[in-house]
Design the sequence.
């Protein structure tokens, strides 16, 4: 019964997070939708490479590319964005955040009811301290002697609700006692 419930839960969750399938240049791709409006931003990663697409109101899908010619990039995606929107896209980078901001501004200029969150995620920190007693279970401690252990943690993270990135620094130290001559930091 437990296996049946687990299988059912996994099946339902896989359908709720399904991506849409699109055909672009005779290539069938499953793409995530990041911006929905006059122009839609679609994207996904393939072989660890990000690929971005613009979908117009007439369902035409155009890939945004940035081909390297020698040591420089041609920034063809900026030309495509400028042609589709009539706006200057020279400062737009080929990143999800930059493309999203550009298309949100364009969609808002075309539809007065279009709403979007324009705030940038901010870097925040958390500090924690901890302490306790340990018997050093991974060392040879035949008398099961206990020593003090304490430390601090520093975490760096983004403030967006679904943060995918965080950094963590931990410092922990244990002291020695008269009966157990071991300390570590």
Sequence:
């Amino acid at each position: 019964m437990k296996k049946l419930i687990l299988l059912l839960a996994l099946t339902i969750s896989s359908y709720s997070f399904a991506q849409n399938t699109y055909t672009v240049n005779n290539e069938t791709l499953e793409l995530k939708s990041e911006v929905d409006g006059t122009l839609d931003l679609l994207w996904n990663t393939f072989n660890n490479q990000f690929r971005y697409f613009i979908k117009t109101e007439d369902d035409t899908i155009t890939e945004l590319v940035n081909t390297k010619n020698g040591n420089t990039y041609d920034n063809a995606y900026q030309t495509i964005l400028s042609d589709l929107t009539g706006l200057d896209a020279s400062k737009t980078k080929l990143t999800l955040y930059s493309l999203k901001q550009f298309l949100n501004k364009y969609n808002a200029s075309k539809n007065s009811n279009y709403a979007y969150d324009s705030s940038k995620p901010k870097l925040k920190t958390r500090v924690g301290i901890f302490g306790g007693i340990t018997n050093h279970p991974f060392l040879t401690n035949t008398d099961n002697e206990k020593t003090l252990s304490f430390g601090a943690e520093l975490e760096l993270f983004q403030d967006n609700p679904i943060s995918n990135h965080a950094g963590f620094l931990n410092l922990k130290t244990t002291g020695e006692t008269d009966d157990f001559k071991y300390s570590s930091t």
